[in-house]
Amino acid sequence: MTDYFGSCLCGTVKFEVQGDFDSFYLCHCQHCQKDSGSAHAANLFSQSAKLIWLAGSDSVTTFTLAGTRHKKSFCKVCGSALPSTHDAGLLVIPAGCLDMEVSMSPTAHIFTSSKAVWDKELDTLPKFDGLPD
């Protein structure tokens, strides 16, 4: 069993995840595109891990899209995506909110039928270590 630590961008919210992840999905559904403002969301899933809020739990809010199972928790101060609990004890952790490396590679791309039209052949684009001049 591993402990993972994470936080929001402004540092108001800090948390610990005790346990292991079952899967790591890159979700291309339109809801995740809207949530992330990008081509996909990168979320870790666990049925057994335990979430412990270490600081700022009163700054965490959760939005559930009516008529769907789509849910997003985030910091009220900076808007950063944060872990959320779903039906049947499923814990969903946005990979980018962890403050440490995750050794697990993504399990799969999901909802690829909704993939953004510009999300193709991205490995062929120029690469920069920082913001280009």
From TrEMBL:
Family stated for the protein in its record: Belongs to the Gfa family.
Protein name listed in UniProt: Aldehyde-activating protein
The keyword Lyase appears for this protein: yes
Keyword hit for Lyase: yes
Domain of life: Bacteria
Residue ranges of every copy of the CENP-V/GFA domain listed in the record: 4-119
SUPFAM superfamilies tied to this protein: Mss4-like (SSF51316)
The entry's keywords: Lyase, Metal-binding, Zinc
PANTHER family: CENP-V_GFA DOMAIN-CONTAINING PROTEIN-RELATED, GFA DOMAIN-CONTAINING PROTEIN
Organism name: Shewanella algidipiscicola
